[in-house]
Amino acid sequence: MRRFYCVLGDPVAHSRSPAIHARAFALLGIDAVYAPCQVTASDLFAAVNGLRALGCAGFNVTVPHKTAMVRLVDTLEPLASRCGAVNCVALDEGTAIGHNTDAIGLLDALDERHVSIGDRAVVVGAGGSARAAAFVLAQISALNSIAIINRTLGSAQELARETRTAGARAEAFTLGSEEANRALEEASLVVQCTTVGLSDDSLPFDPALLGRGAALVDLVYRLPGGATALVRAARGRGIQAVDGIDVLVHQAIASLQIWLSRPLAGLAPQLREAALS
Length: 277
Known about the structure:
277 residues, alpha/beta, Rossmann fold, 6-stranded mixed beta sheet, 6-stranded parallel beta sheet, globular
């Protein structure tokens, strides 16, 4: 029987996850289908129950549902519990197990592109993806500090407090403030986790603030090439920048490894090609 997988989000029509997973299933010889499903916040509970009833094998979760999904699964894996965000769910005979592959995808994308994290990180945003980035970076002993920058200071402060609980030195600043700009200027790694740049060439912050030796990861991507205006501007200044397609591909591989219960290696180049085709 053909397996059914999907991604839940709002919006979700732009997602390249269906193309990535379709290519992966073809390469692996698996009879499965993966569909984008636009679901509003008010319908999320019903959608999850519907997927259980349909015998869905697993699904991904994208904005804005990653933190809400924590309350809708039956079991949380440790990383998802620490992050307080779920972006991958495995369904085992109707039992929903929540995972977080955002953190794994980020680290694997950095590793594939040979990006050095350095000692000062900045996370821009305070949502589900930002939480995953902050918590996984908090485990890296070489980092001296993590700055959380967000339009709403309260959300940034909450995430900074939780990041400190995870053992890292963390501060919170309002996006656009003098303190935030200084943090960006001094950063060795900036992880852009907001949705700015998803639908147009808007910039979440001025890329001229980034130092020449910094590295940038933008979790957002734009077609045809995958690079947002922020990534293009950073690369134009000679800054090493990883686009959201790379991170998405490695998130997908991590999800597939969970769903299929087997290690997968060497798929990233072909899955990136599928995402951009």
